[in-house]
Input
Amino acid sequence: MKVDVYGADHSPWVQAVLLGLREKGIEHEEHLLPPLAVFRKWGILMPAVSIDGKPWQIDSIKILENFDFDPISDKELRLVQNAWQSVLQRPRNPFRFFAGFARIQNPEPILFKRYVSHFGFSFVCFYMFVLINFIKIIIRPVPPVDYGDQFLYWEQAVADFDGPFLDGASPGTRDMLLFGIVQCHASIPVAALHALRDDTRLDSLRRWIGHMQARFKDHPHLYSGAYFEPALPQPEAANFAQRFIFYIGLLTLFALFPLTLALVFVLMRRVPR
Output
């Protein structure tokens, strides 16, 4: 089986797919830039996965089902998505936001392509920055009063199961999705991460995080290891040259701001509602 994955590991849905592939021991290639077919149809939307050269898929649940993971209910999917609300805090500090994306290691094995794609990856980051701020300004979602509240369902779900994981003796779809959320919150620390670490109501969930970290200790995209036990090293960061090229790309985008902003809004219209 040949599996290609497009997406950045700051996305919880990309993380869920990568975790699922690692759990099943499936070799795959990762890409930071969207393939042309994906870009034309969906723009920057991630993750996207192609199996054995077949058409790209973008639904992380359906993608996991292709690797023999069970589907989850619509109710639990909404609860997983609710646990992601703190993502809206990420652009509060633009310098930390862009620095976090600049550090993502580029998996492209060919040196020249690696640097070219890291230059292009700056647009993916710029797009995400504009998108999140657009949502905050236009839609004006109401943030939770207490970010710990959004995890209480999962705290009870963990406590109700005998096994170390939400789906029993081995992790399943719910584990992949929720642990992907944890990685997202840890990649650029936000309020939800502090709730996960410090809220006294979430002891069972912290134990579950520990089980997941032990299970995926060799996962190269594990950001939570710096915040929960067992302590694990952070993902390997992009080198200075990659980050320098990323920032050159970012400066170019800001220099062409009216054009790049217009392109962002064109691409937003391609995203399935």
In short: The beta strands are 3-6, 29-31, 48-51.
